[in-house]
Amino acid sequence: MGGPSAAPPAWMAAAARRWLEDAGATGDDGTGRAFNALPLSGVRVVLAERGRALCSLRVPAHLTDAEGNWHAGAIAAAADDVCAAAIMSVEGIIKVSVHYDISYFSPAKLHEEVEMDGRVVEHKGRMTAVMVEIRKESGELVAIVRQWMTASRPKGAQSKI
């Protein structure tokens, strides 16, 4: 991983863990989950540390397609959230995707356990490259996601809208 050699403050990794755990929790207010929480419903955060977020998930019924496979869009959304958490663990902020690439290898089925291992791999200015490998318990590869993310606007910038 490129970037400064000084370790980020511990609160950043704790914030990344909390963000993932909160996204995977059911809302108590009766309104249900927020949109970005749906792909992480039931997620268990195994590790959130400097530049890494490792989660496991048992594929729930509401995230499957007609054949009982984990829906490709749900996989992409969950991976995006794991990438964001990996960045938060070193930068303390959530970034947005500017380039997203996903390769699917094998389907994960309803109730199958999967692991999502997200890592920061490079920094270039305000841009951060991250990747997530998603695997079944057997070790079989489900998908690999690579993306570049950036802050939605420079620090101190005001919207012109």
What would you say this structure looks like, in words?
The protein has helices spanning 10-24, 72-91; strands at residues 44-49, 52-58, 96-104, 113-124, 127-136, 141-150. With 161 residues, the protein is of the alpha+beta class. The chain has a single domain (13-150), classed as Hotdog Thioesterase (Thiol Ester Dehydrase, Chain A, Roll). Strands 1-2-4-5-6-3 form a 6-stranded antiparallel beta sheet, covered by helices on one side. Helix 1 packs antiparallel against helix 2. Residues 27-33 have low confidence and may be disordered.
Strand and helix layout:
Layout: H1 10-24, E1 44-49, E2 52-58, H2 72-91, E3 96-104, E4 113-124, E5 127-136, E6 141-150
Antiparallel strand pairs: 1-2, 2-4, 3-6, 4-5, 5-6
Helix pairs in contact: 1-2
What attributes characterize this protein structure?
Thiol Ester Dehydrase, Chain A, globular, six-stranded antiparallel β-sheet, alpha+beta, about 160 residues
Quick recap of the structure?
This protein has helices at 10-24, 72-91, and strands at residues 44-49, 52-58, 96-104, 113-124, 127-136, 141-150.
- Could you say what the CATH architecture is? Roll
Tally of distinct domains: 1
For the termini, the CA-CA separation is 36 Å
Shape: globular
In what order do the strands lie side by side in the largest sheet?
1-2-4-5-6-3
- Helix and strand element order: HEEHEEEE
> Structural class given helices, strands, pairing?
alpha+beta
Can you count the helices? 2
Helix content range of the residues, please?
10-25%
DSSP strand count:
6
Given as residue ranges, the uncertain stretches (5+ residues, pLDDT < 50) are 27-33
Which percent band covers the strand fraction?
A: 25-35%
CATH domain class: Alpha Beta
CATH homologous superfamily identity: Hotdog Thioesterase
Mean of residue pLDDT values = 85
CATH topology: Thiol Ester Dehydrase, Chain A
Radius of gyration: 16 Å
What does the main sheet amount to? 6 strands, antiparallel
